[in-house]
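pinned: reference chain
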Amino acid sequence: MRRPVVGVIGNTHRVENRFQVQMVGERNLRALADVAGALPLMFAGLPEITDVGALLDTVDGIVLTGARANVHPTRFNTEPDAKHEPYDIHRDEVALALSQACVARGVPLFGICRGLQEMNVAFGGSLHPEIRELPGRMNHRMPRLESGEIHPDPKVIFADRHEVTLTPGGAFATLLGCEIIRVNSLHGQGILEPGKRVVIEGVAEDGTIEAIRIAEAPGFALGVQWHAEYDPQKNPINRKLFEAFGEALAKHRRAA
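pinned: its structure tokens
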């Protein structure tokens, strides 16, 4: 039996400050292959190359990954500020249209970090460029040394750093079999106002929205603010998420 194929969105990146490339973190690909039982297939976050309809005719599901770039503020009626760069306006265009199309067609959709933010904006929500600047919020960005440099050890960077309380009886609590989990945290931007169909399913200790689902979606349509792709091979919480996504892929493929 053919493995389900999952489209994984690419990010604009410049190599040697000269060559434009599309890039996907390898952990995303390995998580899909190792845990979801899928064949990951990167597609370009470029609207002139990626036709959303043709893409969804080809794949069995979509993953919107995390990324260095923030969603451009004009997508939620806010003025941009140079201090919140970089942006990736081409990925924005593809990801927002793709979020809506996946839900409309029942194609399994899993948003991770920036992917959760894109799903929120796609359904009319807004973002705050720096969650840590809001009163009472913690710093959700990756750990740094006293010198200001990013910590050199990935195990420290991706370590679980705070709790998330899940909605009792909600999709995540049911799927994970508990109502409190611990997750890693590597983001500056975060949800400010949820979109019209965005249902909040998980909230961090400081009130930051960490897990969402899209209401009345005919298929898997979940987003997480943490980097679930980092360790689903060993982390039981993240494993359950990717396994559930894999089951949704198989179900969608059988129904096609």
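why pinned: Residues 133 and 169 are 32 Å apart (CA to CA). The longest strand covers residues 198-204.
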